[in-house]
Amino acid sequence: MATNPDYKYANAQEEYNNAKSDEERLQALKLMYQTCPKHKSAEKLASDIKNKIAKLKNKLQKQKKQSKKGGRFSLKKEGAATVALVGTTNTGKSTLLKKLTGAKVEIADYKYTTKKSEVGILDYHGIKLQVVEIPSLFENFEDSPKGPAYLALIRQSDLMVLFFKTPEEKTLLNHELDQANINIPILIYNDQEDIADQFWKRLPLIKVRTKMPGKDPDFPPVALSKGSTIRSLAEHIHKDFLKNFKFARVWGKSAKFDGAQVGLSHILKDNDLVELHMK
Question: What is the rounded CA–CA span in Å between residue 232 and residue 208?
């Protein structure tokens, strides 16, 4: 007999899959348990959810105790997005951070050189991206004193770049990240020359240049979410732009032809140039 969960359970499950924090996951699991079918064939499903709730509650209690001991910290968000460099020891995280951002980090041949998270700012064609190096992961990383705090930093990031040298190390990373319920876009690092471009391709962002009629394009460009429209751009620049908007001209991939006249609902693409005309 099938469990046949209804739409309420499906919605709760979607909330769980999209949750960004353990607190959100716990609330979604509780809702899944409440809306789970009550017939006999659904008993295992209900039991599995109940076990997940208990495990997550225990994890949050541990994090709370570690917080009182100074085991948690937060990262001040800077730039349009945050990229986390995550991997095993001596795999090139610090070297890449220094290369991309100029951050002053210790680089050495011995294991576990990085003792704390290191942060730098990458200037990508005028768009600022925050790059965070996470101390090397190891087996049962989540149970280490600062493990939950570093895993929280990864979870808050927009992209995770994985560093490893062997299939065994990749398996270890997968296991530790799965255990921590981290589900964000991933890029595998293999010494790509165009690594900054690879970052940008995997981030849910576009960059758009703007200009006023008769003027040169402004700099820096504007970072917007993929799928953004002229309305989104106008609102981002200033409320008066939207209030006094007449039309826009667009050059780039989203335009049928260069200089095409468009309205507020026009969907923009990466590297578009937009000329805003006011009433």
Answer: 11
Distance of alpha carbon 55 from alpha carbon 71, whole angstroms: 20
Q: Are 203 and 225 in contact (CB under 8 A)?
A: no
The predicted-structure confidence for 230-277, as pLDDT tens digits, reads as follows: 999 999 988 888 889 999 999 999 999 999 999 999 999 999 999 999
Interatomic CA distance for residues 198 and 222, integer angstroms: 19
The string of DSSP codes covering 162-185 is EE-SSHHHHHHHHHHHHHTT----
The more confidently predicted of residues 8 and 75 is: 8
205-278: CATH topology is Ubiquitin-like (UB roll) (3.10.20)
> Which residue in this structure is represented by tokens 């600022």?
128
- Distance from C-alpha of 132 to C-alpha of 154, rounded to nearest angstrom: 9
Q: How far apart are CA 27 and CA 13, in angstroms?
A: 11
Torsion of CA 163, 166, 170, 172, to 10 degrees: -110
| Helix, strand or coil, per DSSP, at residue 262 | strand
Q: Tell me which of 12 and 207 has the higher pLDDT.
A: 207
Q: Does residue 208 contact residue 125 with C-beta atoms inside 8 Å?
A: no
Q: What is the DSSP letter of 257?
A: S
Partner residues linked to 244 by β-bridges: none
Measure CA of the first residue to CA of the last residue in the chain; give whole Å: 65
Q: What is the bridge-based pairing of β-strands 273-278 and 205-211? A: parallel
Q: Distance between CA 102 and CA 21 in Å, rounded?
A: 31
CATH class belonging to 81-202: alpha beta
The alpha carbon of residue 213 and the mean position of all alpha carbons in its chain are separated, in whole angstroms, by 36
Q: Which two tokens stand for residue 247?
A: 């039309």
Q: Residue 98 is which amino acid?
A: K
Domain ranges of the chain: 7-68, 81-202, 205-278
